Each structure stands twice: as structure tokens, then as C-alpha cells.
Amino acid sequence: MQALTKRSKQVDRRPMTAMEKMYLPSIIKGMGITFSHLFKKKPTINYPEQQRPFSAVFRGVQILNRDEEGRERCTACGLCAVACPAEAITMEAAERQPGEENLYREEKYAAKYEINMLRCIFCGFCEEACPKDAIYLTQTFTPANYGREGFIYKKEDLLIPNPVTQPEEYAKAKGTIGKDIK
Ligand code: SF4
Ligand code: SF4
User: Fold this and answer.
1) Confidence band of 135 (pLDDT split at 50, 70, 90)
2) I want to staple 153 with a disulfide (CB 3.0 to 4.6 A). Which of 110, 116, 157, 178 is the partner?
3) What backbone torsions phi and psi does residue 82 show, to the nearest 5 degrees?
4) Is 80 flagged in the annotation as binding?
5) Membrane topology for this entry (predicted)?
6) Which residues lie closer than 8 Å to 78 by C-beta, 6 or more apart?
């Protein structure tokens, strides 16, 4: 029967020679390939001690931003939730009370803010939609977890440290964003 392609190979059914029965040439050839890899640059790295730099356009876990006085920028307007194609964002708005001006930048703030990381596809639409520069995607990824609850990130998990009271932690968290933020 005529083959449809030219990829078929004739099987060699000749009896093996004495040398071939010892498998020595094949073993030596195989060891040669193994040893040649010893002198090549390793494609693996010792994670987590060593980490590869992320691409400049990498989009990871979100961070909720504060202003230079440490006040929360988010006004719970809901635009990020509307823009989110995965419906991963939920929030509850609250009114700022007298005396809370040092906590919240605007008269309305997010009393609750949650992102379901199991739904998030890290598209960055929430960051694009936010009119208050309140949410940014960082260059860190979601750590592994044993339960689904651990992937529901609450406001406390997402808020960037306060630049006034925790300047070192704030600078470190800001560094994970990988771009200038307001
Ligand atoms: S990155 Fe995309 S999917 Fe994730 S919360 Fe933002 S808008 Fe939703
Ligand atoms: S993060 Fe931005 S878009 Fe989302 S609710 Fe807060 S202010 Fe609005």
C-alpha cells in the first residue's frame, strides 16, 4: 500500500551483532550526551533564593494605594468591579465620619474590599478603570494555598503599608509595582 506521507521508516530487523548485544556503544553515546550537559549553563535557578526578573509588563497581585499622607485613596466607586471581566471584585461603601479625614481621602471609602484571586485573570482592567489611582497590579504573584478561602484577598491584605507610619514597608511594597505610582 502506498504511504500517504514520507515519514514512515523501514524497521531494521537484522540480528544484533556481538558488540550491539553488549550495548556498550549505546551506553557510551548516552553518557557522552549526559556529560556534555555538565558544562552547559543551567536552565534552572535556586528558587526562592534566586528569582528571575519579571517582564516590565508582568501583571500580578493587586495593591490598594494610599496618598502621600497615608490616607486610603479608594472611594468605593465600583468602577473597577464593573470593568472586571471575571467579576472578581466586591466591595461595600461607607461614609467618612468627622475625625476620619486622616484615614480616608474622600467622603466615601471602601469599608470592605475583596478580590477573589481564583477568578482574577490579571488583565489589569481594574487598574485602568480606577479614576483615583487607588489600585495597581504589582509584580508579585499569588502564593500557593491549601484552601479556597485563602485566595479571597481582603482589604487588609491588599492595602499598601502607610507611608507615614511604616515608611520602610511602604517603600518595599511600592517597589513591587515596578512603575511610578501617585
Ligand atoms: S486584574 Fe482583571 S480580572 Fe483581576 S480583578 Fe482586575 S479587572 Fe478583575
Ligand atoms: S479601586 Fe478605584 S475604581 Fe475601584 S472602587 Fe476604589 S476608587 Fe473606585
Assistant:
1) very high
2) 157
3) -70, -40
4) yes
5) Peripheral membrane protein
6) 91, 93
